[in-house]
Design brief:
Blueprint: H1 2-13, H2 17-21, H3 29-45, H4 61-65, H5 72-75, H6 99-112, H7 128-134
Length: 139
């Protein structure tokens, strides 16, 4: 029951609680969000309804995650500005903090034509903040 509640709680918003307790839920945050969007679209297409003010309404998304909401900003420049076009695309299926290390390793491997058996040890250094997202907890 405790695991089920922890997993369900993580699905609500992609909580970072997993960092402190070493659970596995981070692996499905983005996939679960995509899955939920697809299911929501199918349900709506079949006539299933949801709150029509889920973003700006009382207890809605904005109020849940912010104290000073500005729902008017959602409609500002609607049809003229497309912020999603400025979204970054991750090149590697890994935490963003790992990308520079992955890029460096790939460049070294390519430059020296290295094979797995050629490598005895790899030391990777990163920012302390990144370390907590990528490595901790060690378990």
């Amino acid at each position: 029951m405790t695991d089920a509640l922890g997993i369900a709680g993580s699905q609500t918003s992609g909580s970072f609680r997993y960092i402190l307790v070493g659970s596995w839920v981070k692996a499905f945050h983005s996939g679960w969000a995509a899955h939920s969007g697809i299911i929501a679209a199918h349900l709506a297409q079949k006539g299933f309804n949801g709150p029509n003010d889920i973003l700006e309404g009382q207890y809605g998304f904005l109020e849940t995650y912010s104290e000073n909401t500005r729902p008017d900003l959602f409609l500002k420049d609607l049809g003229k500005d497309y912020p999603t076009l400025r979204t970054g695309i991750k090149l590697h299926a890994a935490c963003r903090q790992e990308h520079s290390a992955i890029d460096a390793i790939l460049a070294i491997v390519k430059e020296h034509d290295l094979k797995p058996d050629d490598i005895k040890k790899v030391d990777i250094y990163m920012l302390k903040m990144s370390f907590m997202f990528v490595v901790e907890p060690e378990e």
